[in-house]
Each structure stands twice: as structure tokens, then as C-alpha cells.
Amino acid sequence: MMEETEQKIGMVGSGSWATAMIKMLGDNQKKKDVFWWIRKEEDLAYIKTYKHNPTYLSAVELRVHPDHLFSDARKVIQQSDIVILNTPSAYLKDALKGVDASDFEGKIIVTAIKGIIPDENLIVGEYLSKIYGIPLANIVVIGGPCHAEEVSAEKLSYLTIAGKESAHAESVASVLRNRYINTIISTDVFGVEYGAVLKNIYALAGGICHGLGFGDNFTAVLVSNAIREMETCVTAIDPEVDRDINASAYLGDLLVTAYSQFSRNRTFGHMIGKGYTVQSAQLEMNMVAEGYYASACIQNIIQHYELDMPICNMVYQILYNKQAANIEVKKLATKLT
User: Fold this and answer.
1) Residue 306: pLDDT over 60
2) Which of 35, 149, 204, 282 could form a disulfide with 262 if both were Cys (CB 3.0 to 4.6 A apart)?
3) Which pTM does this prediction carry?
């Protein structure tokens, strides 16, 4: 019987979602080495000693080797066969400082980032292809619906793993699935990644409405319109794929992000609806709400393709043009069906 090959997995990121994925990898039975880039030196030292992340999901015990923790992302990438990028989109460039295109050669590059690179107006897969020359065939996207907090509690969850090369997607799925993580394989790389970006904007919209005092009845109508908006957008961007917008990666991820108590985008929106400024909401949360950055980027796409996306337009007007939330939501209410 042939001995199982030991895979080398690198995690670039140390927030809640990266920490939850480290737990997934540790609870997976496949033979592997896991290397982890941790941004803060003090967090790295703490995790080495106590096997817990002191900043995120601090109650979770992490199965990591002390010698496999680094504050240099390049060292993690160079030692890995599968590299999982898992920082907020706005911080990816900083995390990859000093990393060369040659460091990514021959590897499966996974994006677990549900956002757009702000200065580039590109989803992560497109950014990696443009800046580092990584072939699209070597890029895999991880979609939801899945919250880090429920993963940490080992509640049954599902991940969608999308790759143009199904074999690469399956390789990634095989090191993540475990007794509480099921995986769904997809070839819709652009749809899954853009869907993950858009659902954050819609969750933010739902939070704004809730903060203004709108109830569950209105939120249900908002979300049903949002999934149609999402389909309009991803179809314009990548019309060749025959996707089912009601699948878990699209509708499922939208629902959990729009309704869950763990949704930071919904929380951020709720604060805006309550009258917080963008800056004060960001300071109080101390976590990144990807929908904020995504809103400006998606606005450019809406204009480029001349799309009718009133929910995204409403969020943009409130966040970036400082329009009154109550007035913008009332305008939107006349357009929902």
C-alpha cells in the first residue's frame, strides 16, 4: 500500500477566519504540515507558548507546531504546496511585501478573502494573476456559508471550494473537511468570489435598515431583491457559467451574512443606521467590515456594465457620499419588489 504524501499547507493571516481555518486543518485527519504567518510578534509568541490566539477566537485550542509559526509571510509561502491567503483585502498587499512571483510558482494559491483589493478594484484572484502572474488554473476560492465563530464551536458547516481545475479544488477540500466541515466543489471561480464580495454589501444594507428600525418583514424583501441583484452582477461579469444563484455559495452565504449575530458587516451597517459615522463605527468594532471597501469597488463595476443595482447604490450613497441613511432607505423602498 502506497504511503500517503505529506502535504504542506501555508496560512497567511491571523484574524478570526484564519484562526478558524487553522482549527479546521488541525481537526482534519489527512497527513500534513501547517505553516502559519502571524502578523503581530506578541500574538505569535503567545500562540507558540499557549496554543491559543489571544486576539481572535481565544478559547480555541490550536494544533500548531511552534517551529511552524512565522512573522515573515515569504517563509510560510516558500515552504508550502498549498498557500491560503486569509487577511482582510485591504491588508493583503502589506502582508505580501517581500514576496516574489517565483515564490508562488507551482503552488495552489487559495483565497479565503471575501473582499476586493481597494486600490486596484480587483478581486483577489484577479489581483494575484495580474501582479504575480499566477495562472487562473492554480487559483482556488473558498466561499461560504460559514462563520468563524460557529466553526470554533464545531457546529456543522459547509464550504464551497471553487477552482477552474477541479483537481486543485478537491486537493484543498481534502485538507479542510472534517467531522463538522463539509465541502462542495465548484468551477465558478469568479461567481463565488464576486458573490462573497457582494453579500457583504447586502448584509451592510440589512444592518443599516435594522439600525433605522425596519423589521424582519422588510429585511426579507431586501434579501430577496439582493439575490437578484447579485445574479445580475455576476452574470454581467462572467456570463459563460451556468450557475444556480440559489446554491449555498450565493444565496446561503448571503442569508447567513445578512441575518447572523456574528456578521461584522451587518453589525457595521447597524451602527451606521444608528447614526455612527463610518470612522467611529470602524474604531468601535476594531474589526474589518469588508462591505465598506467593496461598496466603492462594486460601484465602478456597476458603472462599467451599466447595471441596475439599487441596493448597492444606496449603500454607496450613505457610506461615501454621506447621504442621510433614512432618506436613502426610503428611496430604495420604492424600488423593491
Assistant:
1) yes
2) 149
3) 0.92
